[in-house]
């Protein structure tokens, strides 16, 4: 991995610029071209090193969200997971070794919207969703210095 890619990954863990041309702003800060940034991001995505770039938002300011679990019979896990993955409100869907073996986060514009999705999930799968809405938000900063001479803001 070249130095520019390292600096880009290291520096922008904590905030891609919020503006009309964020990749241009990143390039200006790093002393390169917007094309350099886009090329590196595309390469990282092609190799599977980067899955997405997106905001982390305080859900209560933008709508509603809840952690949800399902106890899925193992014979049905692939089919149920595919259905859950198809819902636009779902992210972070993963399997766990537990009676409740499929866990995901639902997000939507309102709690009533989430309730309707939970009802649809129940009707479609025959499984009762365990709905665990957030009571108190906690922000966990997962950014960390990745390379020598890190530029990660402290």
From TrEMBL:
InterPro entries linked to this entry: AsnC_trans_reg2, HTH-Siroheme_Decarb, NirdL-like_HTH, WH-like_DNA-bd_sf
Annotated function: Involved in heme d1 biosynthesis. Catalyzes the decarboxylation of siroheme into didecarboxysiroheme.
Siroheme decarboxylase NirL-like HTH domain: residues covered: 6-49
UniProt KW Secreted keyword: no
Pfam families in UniProt: AsnC_trans_reg2 (PF17805), NirdL-like_HTH (PF22451)
Enzyme class: lyase
Quaternary assembly: Probably forms a complex composed of NirD, NirL, NirG and NirH. All proteins are required for the total conversion of siroheme to didecarboxysiroheme.
Record-given protein name: siroheme decarboxylase
């Amino acid at each position: 991995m070249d130095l520019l890619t390292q600096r880009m990954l290291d520096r922008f863990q904590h905030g891609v610029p919020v503006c009309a041309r964020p990749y241009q702003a990143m390039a200006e800060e790093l002393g390169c071209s917007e094309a350099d940034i886009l090329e590196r991001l595309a390469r990282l995505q092609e190799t599977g090193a980067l899955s997405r770039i997106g905001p982390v938002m305080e859900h209560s300011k933008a709508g509603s969200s809840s952690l949800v679990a399902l106890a899925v019979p193992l014979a049905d896990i692939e089919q149920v997971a595919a259905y859950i993955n198809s819902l636009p409100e779902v992210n972070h869907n993963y399997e766990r070794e537990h009676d409740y073996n499929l866990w995901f986060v639902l997000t939507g514009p309102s709690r009533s919207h989430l309730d309707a999705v939970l009802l649809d999930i129940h009707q479609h799968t025959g499984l009762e969703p365990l709905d665990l809405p957030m009571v108190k938000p906690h922000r966990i900063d997962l950014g960390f210095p990745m390379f020598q001479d890190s530029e990660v803001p402290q």
